[in-house]
Design brief:
It is a single chain. The protein has 215 residues and is α+β, with helices and mostly antiparallel strands. The protein is built from seven helices and four strands, in the order ββαααααααββ. The strands form two sheets. A two-stranded antiparallel ribbon has the order 1-2. Strands 3-4 form a two-stranded antiparallel ribbon. A hairpin with an 8-residue loop joins strand 3 and strand 4. The chain is elongated, with a radius of gyration of 34 Å.
Amino acid sequence: MCFTSAFAQQGGVSVINSRQNDTLSVKELPTGYNKADIAGATQKLRFAPDPGKAVWYSALLPGLGQIYNRKYWKLPLVYGGFAGLTYGLTWNSQYLKDYSNAYQDITDNNPNTNRFKDILPLSYVTRYENGEISKDQLTTILKNRRDYFRRNRDLTVISMVGLYFVTMIDAYVDAQLFQFDISPDLSLKLNPSLIKSTNQNDRSLNLGLQCSIKF
């Protein structure tokens, strides 16, 4: 646990400004100050992120809202996700371009345009030249692969947009729950209790045990 302290001389009275979990403790109150003043100073020292600012920072630049909320450990997740999706977008876009050119060449009826031979496996090209695969079959193969990489590219773009909004939502929720008490300190209390009978005709009271959990 980090503990820092500073010493100041004010009005001839010693004041200790110590910071431990963003709290302020006073060894001796200076002249003219009371406990209300110290409580106000303590409130100013306690960091409380604004959810609105966290959302706008994250919208301006993904990850900036996490920095504002002091959740630095989330930055590798955010930028790692965007880096992976960017790589996937580039990879699928390149193959989409290659198969689109190959499909265009095989459907233009021009024997001099044969870029499909550069993108397809050699076994397909050999079987096509030997007549084992017809032109229509090869055209269908190229079309299916072109559509496959177009679908993957579109899903990657959608995922990037989704991750962008997830970072905004995460920054907002983090700011809202920043001061939420998640202490594991639980207390169980058992007390004797008088329980009314469930029978409407019976007005007697039964002795029971009441259990309450405080957290």
